[in-house]
């Protein structure tokens, strides 16, 4: 891993449905940040693009990358594997680009251990009711799966005090500022 002082690394984490993807995309539109595209074993959602939103790979490919030490952090989230490539992150840092990452809560803490100057931002939903509404509105999962995500969100929020900043996402423009 490279000298961490060359670039600003911003890590955005949140429970599913809190708006981290929306916030990250808006941040990228209004800034010169590079985006660290994560690897995942989950299938692409509608409108997701390979190499832009994620690198979609098989479980076998992912496990090989884990064994080869290719990830700065990786985790199983909602039954799928996600990981941040050391090479892709270090390449952005090497070119002195500021980088934004969107990772799960434990991944954010792992990145902070390896890149101590990284800025961790934990995005919170305005309420549990709003979180449920957002997950339901996605129309991508069954009711039982939504309940599982809410249960997981309650666990993830316990990591919020380990983050540098807590942002309530009740309005995307306010959250961006």
Q: Could you give a quick summary of the protein structure above?
A:
With 177 residues, the protein is α/β, with parallel strands linked by helices.
Provide structural commentary.
The protein is α/β, with parallel strands linked by helices and 177 residues long. It has one domain (9-176): 3-Layer(aba) Sandwich (Rossmann fold), CATH 3.40.50.300. 39% of the residues lie in helices and 23% in strands. It contains seven helices and nine strands; from the N terminus they run E-H-E-E-E-H-E-E-H-E-H-E-H-H-E-H. The strands form two sheets. It has a five-stranded parallel beta sheet, with helices on both faces. Strand 5 (71-77) and strand 6 (80-85) form a beta hairpin. Helix 5 crosses helix 6 (143-156). The longest helix is centred in the last third of the chain and has 14 residues, at 143-156. The radius of gyration is 16 Å and the shape is globular. The mean pLDDT is 88.
Element layout with pairings:
Layout: E1 9-13, H1 20-30, E2 34-35, E3 38-40, E4 54-56, H2 59-67, E5 71-77, E6 80-85, H3 86-94, E7 99-102, H4 105-114, E8 119-124, H5 128-138, H6 143-156, E9 165-168, H7 172-176
Parallel strand pairs: 1-7, 1-8, 2-7, 3-4, 8-9
Antiparallel strand pairs: 3-6, 5-6
Helix pairs in contact: 5-6
Number of domains: 1
Number of helices: 7
Which sheet architecture does the biggest sheet show?
Answer: 5 strands, parallel
Structural class: alpha/beta
Show unreliable segments. none
Please give the CATH architecture: 3-Layer(aba) Sandwich
Overall geometric form: globular
Number of strands: 9
Percentage of residues in DSSP E strands: 15-25%
CATH superfamily: P-loop containing nucleotide triphosphate hydrolases
InterPro entries: GK/Ca_channel_bsu (IPR008145), Guanylate_kin-like_dom (IPR008144), Guanylate_kinase (IPR017665), Guanylate_kinase_CS (IPR020590), P-loop_NTPase (IPR027417)
Keywords: ATP-binding, Kinase, Nucleotide-binding, Transferase
GO molecular function, one term: GMP kinase activity
Family: Belongs to the guanylate kinase family.
